[in-house]
Amino acid sequence: MNESEEINISNEVNSDESDSDELILTAAQVIQIMEEAWSNEKFAPEILPHKYEIVECILGQISHVEENLSNLINDDLRRSIHQMELDRLRYLVSSYLRTRLEKIEAFVCCILKEEDERASRNKLSYLSPSELEFAKAYRDGLDQHFTDTLKLLPAEILNNKIWQNEIITPNLDAFVFAKAKSQIEGVMIERDEEFVDLEKGSQVIISYSNISNLITNDKVSLI
Amino acid sequence: MFGDSAYTLIKELDRNPGTLPPYNNELVGEVKKEICHLVQQNHADSMANDESILGENGTNYFPTIRARHAGVQRNLRCLLAYHYNRVKCLRTMRWEFGSILPPDIKANLSSIETNWFSKYSSMLAKYMRSISEDGGLNLTVDLNPPKALYIEVKCLVDYGQYELSDGSVLLLKENSRHFLPRNECEDLIRQGVFQHIVT
């Protein structure tokens, strides 16, 4: 995106950003993480672990800066520049959340099933609590809709809930552009059983399924 | 012919991408009736089959049952596709028009779809409210990356008075031009009140 927004926000606030792990990050770093999460989410076919803390943090900053801005007089040049930056940031966050929502809606059954599995194995959940709630409500809504529309059909069809038989799943074999963030050795290409090494900063076109774990481990990013 | 009406239903869907034609109650009813009919026949035949197996040289009904069953499956698939795609279209409209639909679209919905829409609307609103601690984030604005803070817009209809968020009131007349903050007009552009002038 744009470099100016990082500089701008880091001037405004430098003190109180923190991750859930009590990491101290500067505003510029936070935004960089957010941008990366955004592009990963945009290009990955499946839903990725949520970055709720980052989103919260940026939204907090936005309202904080907005509050400061309201003290400035209307035709101050600084005001319009800052306002522009805020708009950009807000776009970044809402686009990120929108992309996630679209994925949740498209693959709702599949995502909830995976989420259940993760919960049963005590793994970190990919959806944030409110996303999870939304996903469940969305699934129930669809369920109800189909049940209602198929009313009057023989009971054995209704009880089978045939719309759950063929759920829509993301195409994990889709090809993506990936950039290595550090030296990675031995990425296995499943079909040919080949191994490739990725140099730091190198870019490859690769099937998503081969690098999905590297994305969650923050070793590569999608571009 | 089996499946004809289901096929017509899908064709109708295919011919109107991105819009919502009136809910085809009649055709949906026909498809459902066909399904019921086929299922009933299969029931009857499967009973007969039991006896004919015992009698050894009776007619074998299995191929007929299979064919009918395939017909039922196909019809169901078409029905679900029809409804699912309408719902998806409706969902896009929630994002475009907000929680209140224009009356011409509302007239095209079945009552079940209206129900779904209001449910979806409220779950989306609930999600958006829950995003940040202070009051949530409206995801249906900021759809495009912002390029400039102010944009030039042309008013297409006599809208009347419109209050901006800083309290000043504008009179929007047909063909008048305004230079406004982008986030203030985004909604009105989507509603067709404004046209964005790109120079």
TrEMBL record, chain A:
InterPro entries: GINS_A (IPR021151), GINS_bundle-like_dom_sf (IPR036224), GINS_Sld5 (IPR008591), SLD5_C (IPR031633), Sld5_GINS_A (IPR038749). Residues 79-147 form the GINS subunit domain. It comes from Aquatica leii. PANTHER family: DNA REPLICATION COMPLEX GINS PROTEIN SLD5, SLD5 PROTEIN. Its main location: nucleus. The GINS complex plays an essential role in the initiation of DNA replication. The lineage of its organism: Eukaryota, Metazoa, Ecdysozoa, Arthropoda, Hexapoda. SUPFAM superfamilies: GINS helical bundle-like (SSF158573), PriA/YqbF domain (SSF160059). This is DNA replication complex GINS protein SLD5. One of its GO terms (cellular component) is GINS complex. It holds the Pfam family SLD5_C. Coiled coil: none annotated. Belongs to the GINS4/SLD5 family. Keywords: DNA replication, Nucleus. It is found in: Nucleus. It comes from the Eukaryota. CDD domains: GINS_A_Sld5, GINS_B_Sld5. Residues 170-223 form the DNA replication complex GINS protein SLD5 C-terminal domain. GO terms for biological process: DNA-templated DNA replication; double-strand break repair via break-induced replication.
Automatic annotation (TrEMBL), chain B:
Keywords: DNA replication, Nucleus. Gene3D superfamilies: 1.20.58.1030. Residues 147-198 form the DNA replication complex GINS protein PSF1 C-terminal domain. It is found in: Nucleus. One of its GO terms (biological process) is DNA strand elongation involved in mitotic DNA replication. The keyword Nucleus applies. It holds the Pfam family Sld5. InterPro entries: GINS_A, GINS_bundle-like_dom_sf, GINS_Psf1, PSF1_C. Belongs to the GINS1/PSF1 family. Required for correct functioning of the GINS complex, a complex that plays an essential role in the initiation of DNA replication, and progression of DNA replication forks. GINS complex seems to bind preferentially to single-stranded DNA. Component of the GINS complex. This is DNA replication complex GINS protein PSF1. It comes from Aquatica leii.
